[in-house]
Amino acid sequence: MPTLIDVAAAAGVSRSTVSNVFIHPELVRPEVRERVEAVAQAIGFDGPDARGRLLRAGKFNAVGVVMADAAGIAEFIKVGANFVTISALGLLRLGAEDFRQRVQGAL
């Protein structure tokens, strides 16, 4: 899977320029923007990953839910999956023991 760095190297520009082409195209000269877009298309790069940008900035779009029992879990997961699809967040479901291990590992 091609990365922003791959596009920058192939187009002969900086990573910031490639990022700007996708996020703030008005900041990039038209001839440079066209070259970067052509390279990105040729190597199959669709644009910067929103989750990667958030991680790099130290931000996390996450919602945590702890359920005491399994009653209603199927409906919750269905609603959660729809929310995840709409918002481009990831969905992680942990059982009680997995949750306990992760919490203990974080302490």
Structural summary, described in words:
With 107 residues, the protein is an all-alpha fold. The chain folds into 2 domains: 4-48, 434 Repressor (Amino-terminal Domain); 73-106, no CATH class. The chain contains 6 helices and no strands. The chain has helices spanning 4-11, 15-23, 30-43, 50-56, 73-87, 96-106. It starts with a helix and ends with a helix. The model has no long low-confidence stretch (mean pLDDT 78).
Domain count? 2
DSSP E strands, number: 0
Order of helix and strand elements from N to C terminus:
HHHHHH
Radius of gyration: 20 Å
Number of helices: 6
Q: Which CATH architecture of the largest domain?
A: Orthogonal Bundle
Strand content: under 5%
| Helix fraction bin | 55-70%
Structural class: mainly alpha
Contiguous low-pLDDT stretches (5 residues minimum) are none
How is the main sheet built? Answer: none
What oligomerization state is this entry in? single chain
Which fold name fills CATH's third level, the topology of the largest domain? 434 Repressor (Amino-terminal Domain)
Shape category:
elongated
Average residue pLDDT: 78
The CATH class of the largest domain:
Mainly Alpha
Distance between the termini: 35 Å
